């Protein structure tokens, strides 16, 4: 952003209608939840590239030099916070922040199909909006391609033609020698009420990516963690049923400083819960007491 059946349905629902447009891989026969080694972002450990692309659109504020520099500062702060937390949990993590730049020009220009991010997502329903955003992200990835060094591979028959997001990620993997490449698109909507979201996290049909509307470090961490399997743990406008509201309230009370629940707070006041540590692969198994309180009868995989 969650009891056995309600939580399972909620996970599927997330793909279509939440602010993070996501769901987790579920083994339908046994109702297991597993979030590690899925899609492009496998596990939050080792060498991880956070690749930022700044995008100007007609209906967002144009990126200024100050806006870009201050957002890069927030991105670097987010990376350092994650590295520090990983070290405290005996996890080796190097978040390598890179960003698109063609000479001295950083932002790429590409308008959302329906003026804004939120209007595009819900146009008229997310099942239509997500493919629109996929095409938007692919156009940007294609435009970012020419700024990268040429493919000089000698052991393959064909060169990597940067035609979409998948090919961009493949090229970045080659360049930086890592499986884990997190692509994050940044739009300058800092003063608006628009959303940030992660798309295709946890499935294997299309590489996951994030669109970030704000430059707060906690929001950047929150969306980045989605790419590696973390779930929303806050009460959203879509949690309308009493049982769902009660469960989310219990989760927020159980984890009062969780970045996946309180991304509006200063980052230095936050941490990640045992649940999130399990979901991103920092813990191999989830404490049984927490599993029962948060997931109910939904089982979890031991990595």
Which properties best describe this structure?
37% helix; 14% strand; 9 helices; three-stranded mixed beta sheet; disordered N terminus; 2 domains; six-stranded mixed beta sheet; single chain; alpha/beta; 303 residues
Please tell me about this protein's structure.
With 303 residues, this protein is of the alpha/beta class. It folds into two domains: 1-36 and 234-254 and 273-303, no CATH class; 41-228, no CATH class. It is built from nine helices and nine strands. The strands form two sheets. Strands 3, 4, 5, 6, 7 and 8 form a six-stranded mixed beta sheet that branches. A three-stranded mixed beta sheet has the order 1-2-9, with no helix packed on it. β1 and β2 form a beta hairpin. The model is unreliable at 1-31 (pLDDT under 50).
């Amino acid at each position: 952003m969650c009891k056995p059946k309600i939580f399972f349905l909620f996970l599927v629902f997330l793909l279509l209608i939440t602010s993070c447009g996501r769901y987790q891989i579920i083994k339908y026969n046994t109702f297991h939840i597993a979030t590690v080694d899925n899609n492009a972002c496998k596990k939050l450990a080792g060498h991880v590239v956070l690749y930022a692309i700044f995008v100007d659109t007609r209906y967002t504020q144009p990126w200024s030099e100050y806006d870009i520099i201050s957002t890069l500062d927030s991105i670097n702060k987010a990376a350092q916070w994650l590295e520090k937390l990983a070290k405290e949990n005996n996890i080796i993590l190097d978040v390598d922040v890179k960003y698109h730049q063609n000479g001295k020009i950083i932002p790429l220009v590409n308008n959302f199909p329906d003026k804004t991010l939120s209007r595009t997502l819900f146009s008229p329903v997310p099942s239509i909006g997500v493919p629109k955003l996929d095409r938007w992200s692919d156009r940007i990835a294609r435009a970012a391609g020419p700024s990268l060094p040429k493919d000089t591979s000698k052991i393959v028959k064909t060169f990597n033609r940067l035609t979409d997001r998948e090919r961009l990620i493949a090229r970045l993997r080659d360049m930086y020698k890592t499986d884990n490449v997190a692509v994050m698109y940044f739009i300058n909507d800092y003063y608006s009420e628009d959303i940030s979201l992660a798309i295709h996290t946890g499935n294997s049909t299309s590489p996951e990516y994030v669109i970030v509307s704000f430059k707060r470090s906690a929001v950047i961490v929150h969306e980045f963690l989605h790419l590696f399997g973390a779930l929303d743990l806050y009460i959203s406008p879509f949690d309308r049923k009493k049982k769902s509201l009660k469960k989310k309230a219990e989760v927020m009370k159980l984890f009062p400083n969780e970045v996946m629940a309180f991304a509006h707070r200063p980052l230095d006041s936050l941490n990640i819960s045992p649940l999130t540590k399990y979901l991103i692969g920092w813990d191999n198994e989830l404490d049984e007491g927490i599993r029962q309180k948060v997931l109910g009868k939904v089982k979890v995989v031991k990595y």
